[in-house]
Design brief:
Elements: E1 2-9, H1 15-32, H2 43-53, H3 58-67, H4 72-79, E2 91-95, E3 101-107, E4 116-120, E5 127-132, E6 136-142, E7 146-152, H5 164-174, H6 178-187, E8 194-200, E9 205-210, E10 217-219, E11 223-224, H7 234-240, H8 242-254, H9 260-265, E12 283-290, E13 295-300, E14 303-308, E15 315-320
Parallel strand pairs: 1-4
Antiparallel strand pairs: 1-15, 2-3, 2-11, 3-12, 4-5, 5-6, 6-7, 7-8, 8-9, 9-10, 12-13, 13-14
Helix pairs in contact: 2-4, 3-4
Length: 329
């Protein structure tokens, strides 16, 4: 099983983004219509929701819709308002040392990942992020020194709201501090339960628990896996070992006096690193963000890809994953 990761720079959305849309749209179209077209909101509902909650993104949204061909279906998809439900795994933690760092594992199926690290400047602020659904993101940072990432929140509830990857995109486009992120996460509705961890250049951090049927809870937790304040979906918790991974990270942060490199290396080993690729919860990559430096790394067993705002190189890396279907070996 192989996934090709690519890094591209396109500060203003154009031909490169259009090429990505053409490459990925057939798969996303099937996913978007998986519950039937009638299950998805109308274009008018999508446009109104985006205008109300994320007006700063309207210009970019309209340009991307044009690059996508201007179809009604593509425009509804790109709003990422009330998309089909989807699950990820993931672990993330803030290292609070001299160089505050956000580290995370992205656990998902290689079949459904964009595999795209995109450097953009769509609203006057450069952003480097791992793309999801073509303009959302699952983790990333901006040039003001803010980094964010997400994990699934471990609840089955689905409601009216945006897919969280677009909410994270919005955070990096308009926010500079963790405090501003908190305000955004409290006011924008999400369609599923997710956990968002943020770290800014001053070393301030938060973890927010988002749900469509509850108010957002803002905490000072440095660790997030796949539950929120307590486990509510026990089958999912057992399948992903969310409690075990949370305890492991908390122990590394509180009980072990170890250097940052050793802490980061732990993300490529059990219990954090997962090989459950055929069930959609294998670790596709580890991301390391140092927002104060404007630098980041993508890591795999045996390989590191370094990027930064000062030195961003386009290219590609082909990563082959084992076919093992045990959660942790």
């Amino acid at each position: 099983m192989e996934l090709v990761f690519r890094a591209i720079t396109e500060l203003d959305a154009g031909a490169k983004w259009q090429g990505e849309f053409q490459r990925l749209w057939p798969a996303y179209e099937r996913w978007y219509l998986s519950q039937g077209e009638e299950a998805r909101p109308t274009y008018l509902s999508c446009h109104r929701a985006l205008k109300k909650h994320m007006p700063e993104l309207r210009g970019t949204y309209e340009k991307l819709c044009e690059l996508a061909g201007g179809s009604d279906l593509a425009a509804r998809f790109l709003s990422f308002y009330c998309p089909p439900p989807y699950l990820t795994g993931c672990s993330q933690a803030v290292w609070p040392g001299e160089e505050p760092t956000l580290a995370r594992n992205y656990d998902y199926s290689p079949r459904f990942a964009d595999g795209l690290l995109l450097q953009s400047c769509w609203n006057g602020r450069r952003v480097i992020a791992m793309s999801d659904c073509l303009w959302g993101l699952v983790d990333g940072m901006n040039e003001t020194g803010l980094a964010v990432s997400l994990t699934f929140g471990g609840r089955r509830v689905v409601g009216k709201g945006f897919g969280v990857p677009l909410i994270l995109r919005y955070c990096l486009e308009v926010c500079e501090t963790v405090g501003e992120v908190a305000e955004v996460l409290k006011r924008i509705p999400t369609h599923m339960a997710y956990n968002v961890t943020a770290l800014d250049a001053q070393g301030r951090h938060l973890t927010a628990f988002l749900s469509p049927d509850r108010e957002t809870v803002i905490t000072r937790q440095r660790v997030a896996t796949n539950h929120q304040e307590r486990v509510e979906w026990h089958e999912h918790a057992r399948a992903t070992a969310t409690v075990e991974r949370e305890r492991f990270l908390l122990q590394r942060l509180t009980l072990h006096d170890e250097p940052a490199p050793k802490f980061m290396d732990a993300f490529l080993k059990p219990p954090l690193y997962s090989t459950a690729f055929t069930r959609g919860f294998g670790t596709l990559y580890t991301a390391i963000y140092q927002p104060r430096k404007g630098a980041m790394e993508l890591r795999w067993p045996g390989g590191i890809w370094r990027q930064s705002f000062k030195s961003f190189s386009e290219g590609a890396r082909a990563i082959r994953y084992p076919l093992a279907d045990a959660a942790w070996l």
